Each structure stands twice: as structure tokens, then as C-alpha cells.
Amino acid sequence: MPAGKERTAEVVDYAILHGDDETCKIFNINRATLDRYKRIYKEHFGESADLLMKLKKQYTMDELKMLAEGIRPKVSKNIVYDFSGDIFTALVLTDTHWGSNYSDENRVYAAFEEGEKQKADCLFHIGDVTEGMSGRPNSVLEMNAIGYKKQRDESIRIMSKWSRPAYYIAGNHDDFLNTKMGAGVSIVEDICKEIPQAVYVGQDSGTVEIKGVKIGLFHGNDSASSYALSYRLQRHINGMAPQGKPQIYFTGHDHKAFYMFYRNVHALACGCIQDQTPWMAGKGIPSMPGFYIVKMCLGGGEVKWFEPRFYPFYK
User: Fold this and answer.
1) Mean residue pLDDT across the chain
2) Cα(8)–Cα(3) distance, rounded to whole angstroms?
3) Which of 23, 92, 159, 269 has its CB 3.0 to 4.6 Å from that of 15, i.e. a possible disulfide?
4) Residue 290 above 80 pLDDT?
5) 50: nearest Cα among 40, 37, 38
6) Strands (DSSP E) found in 185-287
7) Per residue in 72-91, pLDDT tens?
8) pTM of this structure
């Protein structure tokens, strides 16, 4: 006797949420019976079963719920960088905030020039590529590129001048179109698609692995300003499980420049390109414009030595 529509939906929906093995166990059926339910499901509901199964493989349940609510899930990838040498050199910058009157593209060109001079193997950008659309009163008066398209195009124009590999994460400003407006776009991901040498690593965080060494990239949307420069880095590293710690940790968001070695993690607050804005000044938040050139000796999954050098921009 063919399975009823309600029973079919019950079994297949459970399989979508919990997987085939658990479904067979809970409903006391074998795989052949489950496959039959799936065929009947397709007869009743079209191609929904295949589509939902594919979504289940790509997203967690929390992410599926976000999709159902129209919120784009945040992405965090682990990228493996193929490198055969011993000493790896990186240009590290963050918080460019393209679209803001308080960012200067000439600073980035100076960073690119120094990166080329130091033969940097790649660029790491630690988020807030764009100024975004915060919605704060009068914020548009602080901007020279307003809206998604203008900020995207400005970012591509400037950042494409770096010709070597580049790894980007998105920051809270980049995500304003989602958090403030629910637009469901990923501007940094779209920027990276237009720059052949650029790789999008994630929203807020991601990992690049080189010779078994994990480099964690983190922007975040936490409270980023405190009296002690070390506080934010130390707090983050304290919260890391031993088995999940990266050996190297690059952070953005707080517009501070600081290095510490703590719990066997080489951690950098990576400065910024944007000057102090009126909003930051009103909150008493300082800005430390500059970029890092980092040289590191890697081997056997270990960091043998780590040498960060900060290049400040003074006014």
C-alpha cells in the first residue's frame, strides 16, 4: 500500500533534518524503505526533497533557519595556502573603510609598495574593506562613496592594484547591508570575485593554513575599545579551546596596533587605514593608522620565529 502524504512528509522531513541513519533508526525502517519514501515525496512535492538534502549538506540547522528568515548565513572558511619555502612574508592591513572621507588610498598604495619591496608572498585584509551604510544620523556626510555599488567599485579599483595573492574577511561595516537593512548581500565576497588574485575567507573570521600552521583572521563586532591595548586580544585567546587555537592570530575592528605572544599564539591587532572619525572622537576612541609586514619562519606545523614590523602613518 502506498505511503500516505502525511507519513511521507514526516519521514522525509525528519531525514532532511537528522540524516538517513538516524531516520532509519527512529522509524524502524531500512534504507530501501527510506529511499521509497523519498521517491514518493518527490511525486507529492516535486524536487523539494533533493533541494533540501543539498542544503542540509551545505548548511547547519542554525544556518538553514537563518536562510528561512531571509538572513544570509555567515561564512568562515579554512583555506590552505601552498607554500614550499621556510620564511613566509605577509602584508597585513585592515579597516580600509573605502567610501569614508577619513580613509586615504595613498596609504594603501604605500603599503603595497612596501609589500612589493619586502617581497611579501600575500596580503591579508582583516575586514571593514568598506565603510558600509551604518544608518547613523549624518553618517552620509562623512562619505565620498554612498551605497553598495559605489563602495564595491571603489574597493575593486583600489585593491586590485595589489597583484599577488590576497585573502579577505569581511567586517561589521561590510555587513551593514545585512544587519541594518536585511539586503542579503556580501559585498567583500563580491569584491573578491572581481579581483582574480583575491580569495574571500569569511564574514568576521576565517583561517588560512600554511605548512600546517593556522593563521586565524578575525574582525568581529564586539566591544573593541578599552584602556589596555592587550585586553581584547587576551580576552579572545583566553576563550579559545586548546585544540582550536591558531598559532597566529590577526585581528581588525579596534583600529589599534599591538603585538603579543600569549598561550603560544602570536597575536596582532593590525591597525587601520582610516583616521579617527567624528563618531570615534565623540566616543573617545583613538585610531592607530598603519600596516604590518610580518616575516615568519614556518615548518613542521610550528612557528619557529615571528617578526612583525608596524609601519605607522603620522599626521
Assistant:
1) 88
2) 6
3) 23
4) yes
5) 38
6) 198-203, 205-210, 213-218, 248-251, 257-262, 265-270
7) 556 678 899 999 899 999 99
8) 0.77
Four-residue CA torsion sign, 111, 116, 120, 122? positive
Cβ-proximal residues to 251 (8 Å cutoff; 6+ apart), any chain: 94, 126, 218, 219, 220, 232, 233, 236, 267, 268, 269, 270
Mean pLDDT of 36-51: 74
Q: Which helix (H) or strand (E) holds 296?
A: strand 290-299
- Cell numbers for 257: 596596533
Alpha-carbon gap, residue 46 to 37, rounded angstroms: 13
Give me the pLDDT at residue 1, please: 41
The proportion of the chain whose per-residue pLDDT surpasses 90, expressed as a percent, equals 60
Residue 117 DSSP class: H
Q: Give dist(CA 127, CA 124) in Å, integer.
A: 9
Q: Give the residue range(s) of CATH 3.60.21.10 domains in the chain.
A: 78-312
Cell of 305: 620565529
More confident residue, 2 or 20: 20
Pick the CATH number of 78-312 from 3.40.50.1100, 3.40.50.620, 1.10.238.10, 3.60.21.10: 3.60.21.10
